[in-house]
Design a protein that fits this description.
Blueprint: H1 7-14, H2 58-75, H3 81-114, H4 117-132, E1 146-147, H5 153-166, E2 173-177, E3 182-187, E4 192-198, H6 199-204, H7 207-222, H8 230-246, H9 259-312, H10 314-324, H11 327-342, H12 366-376, H13 380-392, H14 404-413, H15 423-446
Helix pairs in contact: 3-4, 3-8, 3-9, 5-7, 5-15, 7-9, 7-10, 8-9, 9-10, 9-14, 10-14, 11-12
The chain binds zinc ion (ZN) (2 copies).
Residues 22, 24-25, 27, 39, 41-42, 44 line the site of one zinc ion (ZN).
Length: 447
């Protein structure tokens, strides 16, 4: 049915489509309708609706300057003097926290040993509080996905080789997870090492990129990442425990209408107010630690990237980092496949979960093949958009990781490592991981 001849032209001019001229600079817009429409010439619609975003605040501009300065320091092989100063301050603050912990324990013991009967009772209560507030150092994982050396000799063999190349001790435990990520940490009083490999990430990397990933993670053992030092880590974990205790809980603990109840209610309200104040102070302490250690942490990430490039070559290190930018594409792929397989779309859940009871997919490796196909189909211009988005992250005030585009730029500067894995080794690792591939695929498809 025909309508008035004038309005349609104006309406379509207001709505650019893929391949049409940019409404801001008239350069051609991107032309792949599967991906966001944006202008590579002027960044129009780089973030949907982001054009109206306000100019960075003074604080954000300062954060951008700090981020760029840290990158320059790393690129020129320097050490950040500010990171060193911050670390000293953080260590001193950690010392205070340890003093309080030791003080509470000492008070409890003194009351228990030298006190009267009443004081001993108080001592017992203080001891319970001290134990509750002790630093938590983590423990070795025991759940699904933990691989032992006998069951995964090829993977441990590769891991040990890469660890030796970066100068780290062999890892104690490797665990595969369903996250699009990888991490390395030390747990318990004996500081045993745990490498967590997210299978969705592992599966989209090639052999050299996997070596680079291992190089980066083991780099955390030798990169001077002081956030992971026993002194600092245990202090922050104690502070978290304190905050967990003081954090405001639910209200309405006391109900009643008589005078006694009124007094109790007033007392409880006063107690809650005091606790809220304590929680606020503790929270500020956690924020302060984050601020003081974020620069040293970012420096350590750069250092790990350089080590990854040294082990597996700059190209592989760059490839691993570029893959991390594709988190949403992996999410989309899994979402689509799940919708096709089960007819009920859900959002990809990155958190680990038990999946033993999940139904098996039609073919165990179908998911991984489809995800790889999907990522291979992501055009260069979409990857470029993700890189530019990461550049905008420079304004993040206290990121634990530097923006990915800067990490890629640094990894591109160096590293002539080979990172080669033989076909037989790669096949053995794939066989060792096969049950976990099937289990995690089933879990992700089940949603
Ligand atoms: Zn434009
Ligand atoms: Zn890292």
């Amino acid at each position: 049915m025909s309508t008035s001849p004038e309005p349609p032209a104006a309406a379509s001019a207001d709505r650019p489509v893929h391949g049409s001229p940019c409404p801001r600079c008239v350069s051609p817009l991107t032309d792949d309708p599967r991906f966001l429409l944006w202008c590579p010439a002027c960044d129009w619609n780089l973030v949907p609706g982001g054009d109206a975003a306000p100019e960075p605040t003074r604080r954000e501009r300062a954060a951008i300057a700090r981020t760029d300065r840290l990158y320059e320091e790393q690129a020129t092989g320097g050490d950040s003097p500010t990171a060193r100063r911050d670390w000293l301050l953080a260590s001193a603050a950690a010392g205070l926290i340890h003093l309080v912990t030791v003080g509470i324990f000492a008070l409890a013991l003194w009351l228990l040993i030298a006190g009267t009967v009443v004081q001993r009772c108080v001592g017992a209560v203080v001891l319970v509080i001290a134990v509750t507030l002790r630093p938590r150092l983590g423990r070795l994982p025991k759940d699904a996905g933990v691989l032992d050396r006998a069951g995964a000799p090829a993977l441990y063999g590769l891991a040990d080789r890469v660890a030796a190349e970066v100068g780290a001790r062999p890892v104690d435990v490797i665990q595969v997870t369903d996250e699009f990520n990888a991490s390395y940490g030390l747990v318990g009083v004996r500081r045993r090492s745990v490498l967590r490999l997210g299978l969705p990430l592992w599966e989209v990397l090639d052999d050299r990129e996997r070596t680079a990933l291992l190089g980066h993670e083991f780099g955390h053992r030798v990169n001077g990442d002081r956030r992971r030092s026993f002194w600092l880590y245990s202090a922050v974990s104690a502070l978290r425990a304190w905050y967990g205790m003081a954090r405001p809980g639910h209200d309405g603990l006391v109900v009643g209408r008589d005078e006694v109840s009124m007094l109790v209610r007033l007392g409880a309200a006063f107690g809650r107010l005091v606790l809220r104040g304590v929680a606020w102070v503790l929270y500020q302490g956690l924020v302060l630690f984050d601020r003081l250690t974020s620069r040293a942490g970012q420096q350590a990430e750069y250092h790990s990237d350089v080590l990854a490039a040294r082990v597996a070559g700059g190209k592989a290190a760059r490839g691993t980092l570029a893959a991390l930018l594709l988190f949403n594409s992996v999410d989309t792929a899994i979402h689509q496949i799940r919708a096709e397989e089960r007819g009920r779309p859900r959002i990809f859940r990155a958190r680990s979960r038990r999946t033993e009871d999940a139904p098996a997919p039609p073919a165990p490796d179908l998911l991984w093949e489809r995800v790889r196909e999907h990522l291979a189909s992501v055009p260069a211009i979409e990857r470029e958009r993700l890189l530019r988005l990461s550049a905008r992250d420079r304004s993040a005030v206290d990121g634990s990781h530097p923006p990915t585009h800067l990490r890629i730029a640094l990894a591109a500067r160096g590293g002539d490592g080979d990172g080669a894995v033989t076909a037989a080794e790669s096949a053995s690792i794939a066989t060792e991981l096969a049950p976990h591939r099937a289990r995690i695929a089933a879990g992700l498809l089940a949603g």
